[in-house]
TrEMBL record:
Domain ABC transporter residues, every copy: 332-546
Name of the protein described by the UniProt record: ABC transporter ATP-binding protein
Native organism: Paenibacillus roseus
GO cellular component annotations of the record: plasma membrane
SMART domains for the chain: AAA
Length: 547
């Protein structure tokens, strides 16, 4: 918990000026609220009971001034905390996504995609709780300290009731806090699982209907929701137990303070004004104790949504490198490269050494599982070699800036991802190319005619993952996206596997004509795909057998 708090404070430090200003206003609101309460004693005793009515306008003016200060400070502190919260939301969301993109692919592939979305949502929700709990906790603690000092100075005997009650609350908070924290973590894990099941159920709707498994999918969703609901009920039961202890203590203490204060008035030891004010202060003191306790409970509750995102952000990250490639790529060499996805698994690549000549068309072929696609992923730095190294212009690839490298290398995969956006946006992906360049790229990949026949043309909105297009159409749109910038290196990993032979031949001829003098790496099963390659490497069980 302490590590998490330090982690949160690092974020708060990024908006410290706003936060400190809000805390100053918070202190003003606490002090003015106490002065408003205390001023009532003098209004009752010195004005109404003593009959000094000429003093009433002065006390009323003081009361009004304090009320205005309290309202202004209370309102503006909330505005500042909200502004700090909004800024932190942007900072934390950006950082989460940056770390997610730098996460090793081996770790990324262990999680279901929907889990990361759920972690982000819980991260944001928990952030809001933490951002608002800190000032609330400071407010309650400040109230607690000031009220203890005032009550202890004027009526120290009341501390005999209040101090034991505080100890009970501390013990209770420690007991229930750890249990609520554990249940909170478990609840959020089950919530993530249920949300992922919903997302996957929607994504797989075609397969579910095709296999007549709707009842099976509904049953799975019901079971995951029931597990999540059971954990919520367990938390509610635990929170109810702590209320069964804390509320009777609180109201019992109110009764004792009321009885003791009334007795002191009857005995003539305190004035009516003193009794009225210090009864209010005692109630506020009890509320402050309760507030501190509630804040501890909220900390414990919010921890469940924070720890997973914290693990991602503080987890292993890919070294993005710091050496920029300013000159053209002159050579690409794999030296004794071996790779396995985990230490327990057999190596997918075993001591691979190859040179990819610049400006030529290089083919890598082999049966499924031979390691062809793994070479592409290593070149794209999705993974790092377990042994050996890859050099670009005699510089180790892991030392080269990722931004610099990916600017020069584009890739197309067998199952490309298309965003649920327009065809134009999918091709551009935020880059600045003219309409003529877009059309030319699509003509090269033999998809322009198909797009032109659509009612909205290049402004046609694609469905999720481009589901409104066929597999071959998706591949050709993705090819257009890759070649529009005419990168120095183009990696095609089964990028035309969904095309018929004639269309594939035309697309290849167009790309070959466009990319003369550029490096193209083709990974394929079909020999027809690589028959006009300048160099061909054949892989078998992770080793080069023919070059």
């Amino acid at each position: 918990m302490l590590q998490t708090l330090r982690w949160i404070f690092n974020y708060i430090a990024q908006v410290k000026h706003i936060y400190i200003s809000a805390l100053i206003l918070l202190v003003i609101s606490v002090v003015t609220n106490l002065l408003i309460t205390i001023s009532q004693k003098y209004i009752i005793d010195d004005v109404f009971i003593a009959g000094n009515y000429h003093l009433f306008p002065y006390f009323l003016g003081f009361f009004l001034l304090m009320a205005c200060l309290y309202i202004a400070s209370w309102c503006f502190k909330d505005i500042l905390f909200e502004r700090a919260s909004d800024k932190l939301r942007l900072i934390m969301r950006k950082e989460y996504m940056q770390f997610l993109y730098r996460m090793p692919v081996k770790d990324y592939q262990k999680e279901r995609i929907g889990s990361f979305v759920s972690y982000l949502n819980e991260f944001m929700n928990s952030k809001n709780v933490y951002i608002w709990i800190f000032p609330e906790l400071i407010e309650k603690l400040l109230n607690l300290i000031l009220l203890l000092a005032i009550v202890g100075y004027v009526m120290p005997e009341l501390l005999v009731i209040i101090i034991p009650l505080s100890i009970v609350f501390i013990v209770q908070g420690k007991y229930f806090g750890s249990r609520i924290q554990r249940l909170s973590v478990e609840r959020n894990e089950l919530k993530t699982e249920h949300n992922v099941n919903i997302e996957e159920g929607i994504s797989s709707s075609r397969e579910v209907v095709a296999f007549h498994k709707v009842h099976w999918e509904v049953k799975k969703l019901k079971q995951s929701f029931q597990r999540y609901l059971n954990k919520i009920f367990a938390m509610v039961r635990l929170e109810r137990k702590q209320l069964y202890i804390s509320e009777p203590l609180r109201w019992g203490s109110n009764l004792l303070i009321l009885g003791y204060g009334g007795y002191q008035v009857i005995q003539g030891n305190v004035s009516i004004g003193t009794f009225v004010v210090f009864y209010q202060l005692s109630i506020q003191l009890l509320d402050a104790i309760q507030g501190v306790y509630n804040s501890i409970m909220q900390f414990s509750n919010a921890y469940g949504g924070m720890y997973k995102a914290k693990d991602i952000i503080q987890g292993e990250q890919i070294d993005i490198g710091n050496t920029a490639i300013t000159n053209a790529i002159q050579n690409i060499v794999l030296k004794d490269v071996s790779f396995s996805y985990t230490n327990e698994q057999a190596r997918v690549l075993e001591s691979i050494s190859m040179e990819i000549p610049v400006g030529e068309k290089v083919a890598i072929i082999g049966e499924s599982g031979s390691g062809k696609s793994t070479i592409a992923q290593l070149l794209l730095r999705f993974h790092e070699p377990s042994k050996g190294k890859i050099e670009i212009n005699k510089i180790p690839l892991n030392q080269i800036s990722r931004a610099s490298w990916t600017h020069k290398v584009h890739a197309v995969f067998q199952d490309p991802y298309l965003f649920p956006d327009t065809i134009r946006s999918n091709i551009l992906m935020g880059r600045d190319f003219s309409e003529d360049q877009i059309v030319q790229a699509c003509k090269i990949t033999e998809i322009h005619q198909t797009i032109s026949e659509l009612p909205e043309g290049y402004d046609t909105i694609l469905g999720e993952r481009g589901i409104t297009l066929s597999g071959g159409q998706r591949q050709r749109v993705s090819l257009a996206r890759a070649i529009i910038g005419n990168p120095e290196v183009l990696i095609l990993d089964e990028a035309t596997s969904a095309l018929d032979l004639e269309t594939e031949r035309r697309v290849q001829e167009n790309i070959d004509s466009m990319r003369k003098g550029k490096t193209t790496i083709i990974i394929a099963h079909r020999l027809s795909t690589v028959e006009n390659a300048d160099i061909c490497y054949s892989l078998h069980k992770g080793k080069v057998t023919v070059a």
